[in-house]
Amino acid sequence: MNYILLIFKLQYKLFLFLFFVTVLPLVAVYQFLPDEFDKSYYFFLTFLVGLRFSFFKGNEHMEKVKKSVREALISEMGRVPSTNDIVKRLDEVATTRDYIFGVCGLCIILISALYGNL
Known about the structure:
The chain has one domain (2-114). The chain contains four helices and no strands. The protein has helices spanning 2-32, 40-55, 58-77, 83-114.
């Protein structure tokens, strides 16, 4: 349970962004245009995967996040973190980022199933 809270603590902004960009538009399509797009969940899943591989590449994204991770560790630990601590937290950030993309993909599939379009 603590690990799930850590995931959302580290990546809640990403989750909210992905939710508002992929899940809510899918709900709007199913709610207001129910018969127009049968397989629209394919588009939103493809869009989600495209976001993952275009904007959140491994090394480029990690270089952007490294400074904020270091500052967060300083505030948590009360001292300058070691390189090992920074690398561990960066691995956690990368793992939780992938989990958040998976959770949003699962939300898309569940909403499609709820609306009977799966």
